[in-house]
Amino acid sequence: MMSYTPAEVQRLPLYRTPALLASVDGLIAAESTRHGGVSPAPFASLNLGINTDDTRANVDENRLRFFSAIGADGLDFASSYQVHGTAVLHATEAGRYDGYDALMTNQPGLLVGVTVADCVPVLIYDKVQRAVAAVHAGWRGTVGRIVQSTLANMQQQFGTRPADCLVYIGTCIDENAFEIGPDVAKQFALSLLQTDPQTGRTCADLKRANAELCLAMGVPASQIEVSPFSTVLHNQDYFSYRAEHGQTGRMLAVIGLKAA
């Protein structure tokens, strides 16, 4: 892992905002990095995951820093204990829920978010109905089409049309590092797999899989942004569960509208 001096760490960003969403008036959309927090190794340093072996005091302080940095001090926050499923929650108030891997809302002043450390975070903004969603898509959620379920739920609840949505496919494990066995591989389209003929090692492209699911729902390609970063290749900036053998922190990807 690349190391930084303390002075260099102070200059690194706590978060990145998707370019596609950066200019939307009143919208907060951010994906955290691993920089700028207080947690010691192996959670160094901006660990935002409650369900880790880090201390709750560290995570609370890190969350305060993150939410302050993105300008969300006065906003409520809704999240869930994620189970790698496909359930979608319509969040109307702040809280820590259980069993959902996607949250959606049209409530101003309420952020929704998901924690990740290799799985794909997907942020959705409906620019007409002013509704948002945050999706956690690991391989199970991806083959279960959770991002399509989320768009369908937004359509039912808010009148969302996929053609009106801006979608950010966030930082996750890359297509050269997400090695899978044959039982998992057979659940992906062949076009999303690559197999090394020398080693027989098969990897899947989770980013492209989720982007294609959005395209199939009717989201225009010009309204989909895909993160250029990898939790493995850029492990100095992002947490990776696989690269760090399970002992690591978690990032947050959040989205929401400021209260009028």
TrEMBL record:
Which keywords are on file for this protein? Hydrolase, Metal-binding, Transferase, Zinc
The catalytic activity, as recorded, is: S-methyl-5'-thioadenosine + phosphate = 5-(methylsulfanyl)-alpha-D-ribose 1-phosphate + adenine; adenosine + H2O + H(+) = inosine + NH4(+); adenosine + phosphate = alpha-D-ribose 1-phosphate + adenine; inosine + phosphate = alpha-D-ribose 1-phosphate + hypoxanthine
Q: Does the keyword Cytoplasm apply?
A: no
Question: What are the recorded GO MF terms, alphabetically?
Answer: copper ion binding; hydrolase activity; S-methyl-5-thioadenosine phosphorylase activity
Entries under CDD domains matching the protein: YfiH
Query: Does this UniProt record's set of keywords contain Transferase?
Result: yes
* Family the UniProt entry places it in: Belongs to the purine nucleoside phosphorylase YfiH/LACC1 family.
Q: Cross-referenced NCBIfam families, in alphabetical order?
A: peptidoglycan editing factor PgeF
Output this protein's name. Purine nucleoside phosphorylase
